[in-house]
Amino acid sequence: MHVLVTRPKGDGEKLKAQLEQLGWEVSLEPLIRIVPNEIPPSAIDGASTLIVTSRNALKTLSASAALVPATMLPLMAVGPGTAALALELGFKDVFEGPGTGAELAPEIVRKSKADGGTFVYLAGDKLAFDLPAVLTEQGVNIRRVVAYRSVAAETLSPRIAEALREGVIDVVVLMSPKTAETWASVAPDVAKPNDLSGISYACISEAVANVLRLRLGTQNIIIADRPNLEEIFIVLKRLAARPEAE
User: Where is the signal peptide (predicted)?
Assistant: First the structure.
């Protein structure tokens, strides 16, 4: 089975190596480039709690002058991967959320009602879920800091374009709606519908799958039961077990 990983370069290289250890052929084609913004210490002035729903936000924070004062604050992370990275960076008081922004929101509301204060949300320029809007409606004092920008690829590399035309890509892994939107924009530019019809998609969420259904009309989709990398591995193993993947 030949898997195409579309994550940004750093995370993508790590995922590629993990999948290759399972015996699959893996190609990497980052569809999103993460561009960090400067995070000065003043960005978290007055914060009582930090909120993070992306590892990319923490990676940007780790290279900034705001890291040391940030680690003195409680941090609410969207899920286990983000929480684990926060602990690695030196945060001591880390709340691990259920896995999505929508599920994290009620936990933030509860903490706000109990403790008050100002919540500072370190996030990207594009939000898959508008957490600030939801929390503001619930009376939470929240301030968003744009930690990084996501820049979409404008085309596929010649190597991947040729692989698509030759029909050697079996599965594409898509980890965000923006990545799915980018794929739906660039893949049809280099390959005909028949070239793409045999591809299956491992999607981290229903929102990602909906982009593919709307933009490409494909139904060759398996969605992770939970929006995390461990569940994506389960999806890929299911796909690899199908007779046509052998």
Answer: none
